[in-house]
Amino acid sequence: MADAMEARPPSAVQKTTFTVLGICCSSEIKLIDRILNHLEGIENVSVNVLAKTATVVHDPAKAPASRIGLMFHRLKPVSALNGAHLNAGIKESGRVQIESRPWPSASVVASGALLLVALCSYVFPPLIWIALLSVTVGVLDMLRRAVAALRRCVLDINVLMVAGQSASISFEGSVTVSNDDDDAVFGAIGLGDYLEAASIVFLFTLAEWLEAKSTNKARVSLESLLNLAPQTAVIAETGETVHVKDIMINTIVVTVAVAEDSAVARMVKLVEDAQNRRSNMEEFIEQFAKYYTPGVFLVAAGTAIIPWILGVHPLRQWIYLALVLLVIACPCALVISTPVAKACGLSAAAKMGLIFKGGNYLEALAKVKAMAFDKTGTLTEGAFEVVEVQCWEPNANIGQFLHWISSLENMSSHPMARALVEYARVRGVKPSSEVRNFNLIPGGIAGFVDDCYVKIGNAEVALSNGWLRENELRDNEAGITISYVGMVDRCIGYFCLGDQLREEAARAVQELKKQQIHVIVLTGDSKAAAEHVQKQIGENVQVEAGLSPEGKMKKIAELKETWGLTAMVGDGINDAPALTESDVGVAMGISGSALATETANVALMSNDLRRIPEAVELARSSLRKIYQNVAMSLAVKLLFFGLAFGGLPSLWAAVVADMGTCLLVIFNSMHLLHKYGGRESSTSSSQVPQEQSINVDEFSEPLLSSERRDQDEEAPCLCCKGRSSQRER
């Protein structure tokens, strides 16, 4: 692997993900950026607070990672991050890093125990000095991080907390006692706010542990996906003896990919990549936070300095107010309000069998006003059955006719093609391996079979080529797809195929209608076939028939102009242009083509259409959680600003409010996991067999023979000029 990486051209970039388990607050994103971006060869840094990872895009020539395994502790990014006490390391490919800390650290427990002892100073005053010991025990890690942040001119939560504790210890206090008879003022000589400083340290470190424990619960949902991955495959060469526990007769296990290339690992990678992508709301909040913290810090500094310059007394009151403002200057809860809800939503969607390629698509799906569905293979099962074959060629029998059809169709991975090839095979007809100049035409396919140029297509192909007149076309029947076969200037026959509507299709469409979403069916099939589907799913659904891939794309553009945000659900290569044109493209991951899944923004990892309205519901809930989190965060900040200038809150109360809001935001977001994460068991087993959900590569086209795969790679793709064999019917 090292040689492969070193052989890459100098201009190539490499992506490496690091675990940064020491992240305790979103304000440390800037610190990590400052640490890594000054290293030579680093091009981009993306930090995921919830997942506690930093993804680095770097030039391997200047910042090589070829010896990551051997030089783990000496790798520059790791060393630099650990220099700031951020507990960094290389993230294992395809694995979710879970920090298992069922109990607070020893320093947190010790700090809390010493604080309890110090509280007894109300009975025995000398014990107040124990509070200083409590601060010393608990503040060390915080102090190290604060120093690292200040060295890079970054104001993070550690700097603010250390400043608050230092001031609490440094400034002396006074107590005023009064009654109805006389006034007396007693000075508390030489006493600093040691108890409050100790309270700040303990409450902050305890809240930090609670926050880490809560975020781990959100991240652990991804671990359940990894449990699907097979463990180990043993390669037994000829003559090699392998010791096994059991032998199962007539059972063959085929290993088709290494663990990091498995469908499960790629599912996890897609979700992690989606979490790393910033949504529009997230970017806005982060931009706001960049100005919020320095702004509040300046207000706090002014609150302490201006009264001192003006000689306003008591000065201690203004300094104390400045400290409270320092504590609430950290926008932790506000900054994580969006990513934590987004991450929980993405994880819940993954457990439901929906892989979003970015949090922005989750937000967009929540606002979708129109949704278009492809018919064949999406609303219908795509399990075609040949119901009629007619040969009109006088010099050919039905066997020769099937040979021409199956040879040309063998170049395609369309469900119709597979049904026709199988129909011919059962009748003893084998497709020719010599098919030349195979190409896609509007509404069909064409190519040379045994030196005969054959075209197969819909009614439009038959009419445009002059094979038949309108009144000579076969009568359309409900639910039947008719394709015509021609040579040069004549039609030599036709065939009819039937397809069944998915059992859950009507229910899924009507659920979308209840969600106030305009639903439209786009198909290249005949009007009669489209109207037959319309009758089954609901007369209130719009249908558009006879559309080419470009026609579907134009229809999506019209929907966007008329309705606003538009989603498209499809499964074939011919759906790729429409999926790309839509605001949110949803691909059928199991039955769909690789290109459809690649161009789509969301992959449905089953054929259960009920997941679509559930995805809309989840997206809307996630967006509501984001709004709720932002509102709670801002409300608490504004409330404490008002209370602070009213002289009411104390420092420890500000710490509790600040960290408590973080926890509240996390728990509120985790409700998405509890509400939607348990829906994975409701997937219809009849539609997604257990072995398929584990072993089938959902991101590739349906399984073909090696011969057909090789041929498919030679077929030109209409929409991307790549190589494919799908066509529009």
TrEMBL record:
Region (Disordered) residue spans: 680-716
CDD domains: HMA (cd00371)
Alphabetic keyword roster: ATP-binding, Membrane, Metal-binding, Nucleotide-binding, Transmembrane, Transmembrane helix
Principal localisation: membrane
Pfam families: HMA (PF00403), Hydrolase (PF00702)
Membrane topology summary: Multi-pass membrane protein
Transmembrane residue ranges: 113-143, 291-311, 317-336, 626-645
Molecular function in Gene Ontology: ATP binding; ATP hydrolysis activity; ATPase-coupled monoatomic cation transmembrane transporter activity; metal ion binding
Cellular localization per UniProt: Membrane
GO cellular component terms listed in the entry, alphabetical order: membrane
Recorded superkingdom: Eukaryota
PROSITE patterns named in the record: ATPASE_E1_E2, HMA_2
Compositional bias ranges of the Polar residues kind: 680-695
Domain HMA, chain residue ranges per copy: 14-79
Family, per entry: Belongs to the cation transport ATPase (P-type) (TC 3.A.3) family. Type IB subfamily.
Protein name: HMA domain-containing protein
Source organism per UniProt: Musa balbisiana (Banana)
